[in-house]
Amino acid sequence: MKPRTIKFKRASLMAAVIAMATAAAGCASGGPYPLDTLSPKSDLTRSILNLFKEVTILDSIVLIVVIVAMIGAIFVYSSREGDPGEPSAMHSDVTLEMLWTVIPALILVAITVPTVHTIIRTQPDKWPAETLEVKVIAHQWWWEFEYPSLGVVTADEVHIPADRTIHFAMTSKDVIHSFFMPSIGGKRDVVPGQENQITLKADTPGEYYGQCTEFCGTSHANMRFRVFVDTPADFDKWVAHQNEPPVRPTDGAAAAGAKIWADAPCAICHTIKGVSGFSKDYTYGFRGPDLTHFGSRGTMAGSMLKNTPENVALWIKNPDAVKPGANMPTLGLDGEDLNDLVAYLESLK
Ligand code: CUA
After folding, report:
1. 140-188 residue pLDDT tens
2. 220 Cβ closer than 6 Å to some ligand 1 atom
3. What is the DSSP string of 270-324?
């Protein structure tokens, strides 16, 4: 081989190594990426990241050994001027064959054991007595969260207390979705007619992002959610607030909006506790998000938009333009009526 070709190959190898190292450093910096699996904030994601690190270190050792052996072989065994003809072919060497069978088998064992251990540890069959159950119900294209022991139902924004075991039991009302909150909990398919689980303990209060990660139709990419890990005191405050009936507006635009709510078909799909009811068999009042405390949520429409009067108006006026394929119908509201209805919804703190 000509020396120039060897130089070129070395340069390409160095470039590839530098590119990989730069990409890895970029990921590990944990920058402002909302769906960051490298900034764990729960016992579940910490153990997954540890496993990832262990496997990466092991794989890197294998990669380095193979590359060093390969480059060494190129230099040691390449033919030189004056060598006599073709080298003799080696037919079998029992020791070598044993070695390259046993070593990969040991590497696979070293990867499999911690992987299976992590799977078992993060999917327990039993939960501590103080575990909080949160039902996750996926819909095209929004998330419903129900707290059976607390009587709370909300949408697109789930609150959990830090340092307490949470058991998410998830199912779907229509097609297969996938519940993914990278910093807090791995990823689980959400399947109609089946209950899948995630059990975890979040440890760092904050706001985290989630996203449906199974293609589920037109607005799959718009099926987002937020996880709020609260301090236990803040969580109790949030629950107490969710259990209060919303304030009934008595005058102004919000009161006019309450009348529009009553006359419009909103209550067929949405519930406002104390104002319009729901049926537990999902025939009415539950096809869309529970709006009892809509005004207290930071985001709306599959957690895509900030919850502002402008965005609520945009949504009601033409849901399909905001979330293509949305099941929310266009009500034909505009002008003052629309503003009044928006004022009412935003008053539902
Ligand atoms: Cu739900 Cu994708």
Report:
1. 999 999 999 999 999 999 999 999 999 999 999 999 999 999 999 878 9
2. yes
3. --BTTTB---TTSSSS-SS---TTGGG-SEETTTTEE--HHHHHHHHH-HHHHST
